[in-house]
Each structure stands twice: as structure tokens, then as C-alpha cells.
Amino acid sequence: MTESIRLGRIRGIRLGANWSVLVVAVLVGVGLGERVLPSIEPGLSGVWYGVAACGVTLAFLAGIVAHELGHAVVARRQGLRVEGVVIWALGGFTSIDGQPERPGGELALSGVGPLVSLVVGGVLLGLGAGVEALGAPRLAAGSLAWLGGLNLLLAALNALPISPLDGGRVLHAGLWRLFGDRLRATVVTTAVGQVVGYATLAVGMVLLVLGNLEGLWLGATGLFVGAGATAERRQGVLLATVGDRTVGQVMAPVAPTTVPDWWTVESACREGPLAEGWPVAVLHDWQGDPSGLVAGGQLLAVPPSLRGQVRLRELAWPARSVVTTRPDEPVVELLQRWTPETHWAVALAEGRPVGALSVGDLEALLAGRFPTPPWVAGPADRASQGPAPVAGNWR
Predict the structure, then answer these.
(1) CA of 37: how far to CAs of 21, 125, 179, 302, in Å?
(2) Per annotation, catalytic residue among 3, 34, 68, 350
(3) Which of 11, 66, 123, 239 is most exposed, with minimal Cβ within 10 Å?
(4) Is 36 exposed, middle or buried (0-12, 13-18, 19+ CB in 10 A)?
(5) Where are the transmembrane segments (predicted)?
(6) What number does CATH give the domain 247-389?
(7) Catalytic residue at 101?
(8) What was the pLDDT predicted at 190?
(9) Where are the domains of the chain?
(10) Which pLDDT value is given to residue 318?
């Protein structure tokens, strides 16, 4: 989920909001000011309702943040790195680098969110009852009670055993423990999420066609659940196939010195890193900036009669065909950023390229055909990977 508005940090955890949360805040605030709060205590001025609606809306969003911070705190205690928390139209999202290693860890990480919402809801209901007993205005007591009920509803909805909701991950932890197989548990829970999500989407679309605008919200929720379950299923399969391999474990080493991109293929075959047997070399332009990436197999693919005419930069893919990565980045995370237009990934360490990974390497890895890196083979055995992509400015 993209962060559009930065809200600051709490205990080092970055907080942000997507622009869509503003739409929800407006809708909730208007609904409170025009319908909910006047029904709790009629006869007040519009200013009172407006001020109370703003306060309740902010408290509602704070409850979502508290829910997500529960996930973040438990993740940190399990040694996982938390990227940040983002709230958006359909709730919140905590970006966590890595996954629990055991079912018990996943149970704690997933269950803490609904538990936090349950506690917040109970406390608010208790405060509402207390201030009412003390004779406080009905508007204050009713607002607290409404917030408490909403947080309890949030806890109940998130506890539903549907992936990608928290309850779906709790179910996943239970099935993981039962089956002893993480992937099997993922297949079952995500299948449930896909069926429920897309069925909800269909019902929402029918209601919308019939003129019921609530179908739009229902359809959006169903789409979120169905798409989220599909994404979790794909990531689970990738984890089972790729495991915990990092980019550094499967990347081709890059030559320690760069090669001028104006060299001809003949020159590169005669001298320089590629002639010395390095599988991949970085190119530089007249200014000395990195301008591309070339694989040794590509030089061999050029007919001998043309090697004195074709320059290395003429073999390059455009910059949009390259993604950058780190040697310590898990391959499964790199795959999440890989698009059909991507042909190479360049691994950077301290701003300098140290390795490269081609689409062919990843396909071999996913097919289970990657016991020996292809660059270990001799030059005659190296298949051409196609034109080398422009790596762009890596500084």
C-alpha cells in the first residue's frame, strides 16, 4: 500500500496514510455529523455536531493505527524488520520484512491485531458507561459508546477466518501446525479467501446494478479480500519454490572493472574483463557513468563478420528493463517487483554494482534447474541471454 501522507513515527515505526483514507474520513465525519450524533443527542447546534464528528473520526483512525501497531510490536519482538504502517480506505497495512518461522509466531503476530481492537473497544464502552453514570452530556457518552462498538466490530471482522484478514492468518497458523506443511496451509486458507472475496465482489456488483450504492463498498471489500488472497497464495508458492535464497547466492558476479560502451564486440572479445572470462561486465560512457550491462554470451552471439562494427552499447536494453536490488535481498521479494518488461536485476553494494541476475536465471531457479549457476560453465556453454539492459545511473 502506497504512502501518500507521512504522519511521523512511534517508537521508530514509520506511520503514513494513503490518500484514500481522506475519502473515508470525510464519509465517516459527514455520517456522524448529520445522522449518528444528532440521533444520540438531538437539538444541539451544528457546530457541536461538527466538532464532535471530527474528534470521533480522528479517534476512529487512531484505533486502526493501534491495531496495526500491535502487529508491528510483535513482529519486532520476533526479530522481524518493520518497514512501517499505512492506513487506507479499507483499514491498515503493516509492512513486515520476513515471516514467522513457526506456527506459534504467526499465531501471535496475526492474533494481536484483533486483540488490540477488542481491548480498545471494551475500554471505550466502559468509558462511555462511566461518563454517562457521572452525568456527562449524552453526546460524549454516546460518542464513546459508538467508538467502542466500532472497534469491537473491527475486531470481529478481522477475526473472520478468511485470508488475507488476520483471522485467515490465524487459521493458517493452525493448519500449518496441523499439517506440518506451510505451503499446504497457504493453499487451503487462500482458496477460502478467494472464494469468499470474489463472491462478495459479485454480490456487491449486483447490488450496485440494482441501484444500491452500498454495493460499491461491498464490492471494493470483496475485491480487496480476493486479490489479497491471490497475492498471498502466489507468495506462498514462491517461498516454497525459492526458499530463503538471497540475490547474492544466485547472482552472476560482475567484473571488478567497467568496460567502455563504445568498444566494439571485437575489442571486448580481445581484451578487458569479458575476454578474461568474467560472465557479466558493467559498461561506462564517455563521462565515466555506468551506462549498461553486457553478458559474455552475448558477444559470442554476434556473427564474427559483424564484431568489428557492433558496439557494446548497441546491445543494450532500455533502462526500464532493469531493476536494482541488494545482495542480501531475498529472491522472493525481488520476484514481487519483477515485471514482464524486466530482463535483468543489478545488485548494488554501497552504490556499486556487484552482481547481476537475468530473467533466464530466475526462470531456471523457479523450475528447480539451478543447482549450478550458469556462469560456472565454460564460455562455450554459456547461452546468450539476449541484449543486455541499460542499467542506468547506479550512483
Answers:
(1) 21, 16, 50, 75
(2) 68
(3) 11
(4) middle
(5) 12-32, 47-67, 79-96, 108-127, 139-163, 183-210
(6) 3.10.580.10
(7) no
(8) 93
(9) 5-159, 178-242, 247-389
(10) 64
Report the amino acid identity of residue 280.
Answer: V
> Which residues sit opposite 88 in a β-bridge?
91
pLDDT for 175: 95
What does the pLDDT average to over 255-268? 87
For residue 96, pLDDT beyond 50: yes
